[in-house]
Specification:
The protein has a seven-stranded mixed β-sheet with strand order 1-7-6-5-4-2-3, sandwiched between helices. A two-stranded antiparallel ribbon has the order 8-9. Helices cover 41% and strands 14% of the residues. The longest helix has 18 residues. It is α/β, with parallel strands linked by helices and 290 residues long. The chain is built from ten helices and nine strands. The protein binds pyridoxal-5'-phosphate.
């Protein structure tokens, strides 16, 4: 559902999102996470007049996310290497703040990156595509009280409907004018985001995700680890090792539950009964495959 001119809905949902996140002033709507992170890189380059991006994690399929002349991609979890790569030619650090490994020291690591960005004049972009609306409404930035310069949201924001965005201060977002997309302001995704924001405001979504995640982790202490909102199989914490979890995932699927070898998300639609039944399936499945 698209119209020739921007609609009020674009503006209204942008205001709702800024209120929910508290720190940004403006929003640019797109349809996918890949677009949002590319837009954030472009805004950072225009705002700083620099070209180099230092990234950690997965941010989308576009060619410009591949390591090359102007992009250094540091393997997930190598925080020292990340800080060393940030220098006075760096436009921005594009960070997937966490993935499948629970890290007790994450807040300090994020502060170190933030500090290094301040020292060098680089911007900090948080890719909250997975963490947003799950760890906290604002994702890891809110969870660890680290305010980025720009942040990207998508996935849970639309609860199944296609919508994503980049957010930031008015000062930085003035460089977003050339982020142009035929379907960026498409209204079904915006209506979905509005409904999601309303539910988060009126219902205990994050608390429920954590509560059910903890219940699951406690019920399967030898098989599951990680963040309560995103449990992972012990030994399958990353894509290089997760393949060995396939027999277990299949055994769980035979018992009626779909999981992912490298980690899965608790959903607000899940009930206590679902979680207990999943825990049972995981423990039985573990017993079957060893
Ligand atoms: C952290 C992160 N950033 C960006 C993306 C890209 O999002 P999309 O698939 O909507 O383009 C993903 C997708 O999995 C992601 O996990």
């Amino acid at each position: 559902v698209t119209f020739s001119l921007p609609t009020r809905l674009e503006d209204e949902v942008a205001q709702d999102l800024c209120e929910a996140l508290t720190w940004p002033e403006q929003v640019r709507w797109v349809k996918t996470g890949s677009e949002a992170t590319v837009a954030a890189m472009m805004i950072a380059r225009r705002a700083t007049g620099r070209t180099k991006i230092v990234s950690m994690g997965y941010h989308g399929w576009h060619e410009c996310h591949q390591p090359g002349t102007w992009l250094v991609n540091v393997p997930m979890g190598q925080w020292e290497t990340l800080c060393e790569a940030i220098d006075c030619t760096t436009a921005a650090v594009l960070l997937e703040p966490t993935r499948n490994v629970w890290d007790h020291d994450l807040e300090q690591k994020l502060e170190d990156v933030r500090g290094r960005c301040h020292q060098t004049g680089a911007l900090l972009i948080m890719d909250e595509m997975v963490t947003g609306f799950r760890w906290a409404v604002g994702g890891i930035s809110e969870y660890h009280r680290i305010t980025p310069d720009l942040a990207c949201y998508g996935k849970a924001l639309g609860n199944g409907y296609p919508i994503a965005c980049v957010v930031g201060s008015r000062h930085l977002m003035q460089h977003a004018v050339s982020v142009s997309s035929t379907f960026g302001g498409e209204c079904i995704g915006l209506a979905a985001a509005r409904a999601v924001l309303e539910v988060y405001q009126t219902e205990p979504v994050i608390g429920t995700l954590r509560h059910f995640g903890l219940r699951l982790l406690k019920a399967c202490p030898e098989t599951l680890t990680g963040w309560p909102v995103h449990p992972v199989f012990v030994g399958g914490e990353d894509y290089t090792t997760s393949a060995r979890m396939i027999p277990l995932v299949r055994a769980i699927a035979r018992r009626g539950h779909l999981t992912h070898p490298s980690g899965f998300n608790i959903m607000y639609a899940h009930t206590g009964k679902d979680v207990d039944s999943l825990a049972h399936a995981i423990n039985e499945g573990r017993g079957e495959v060893g």
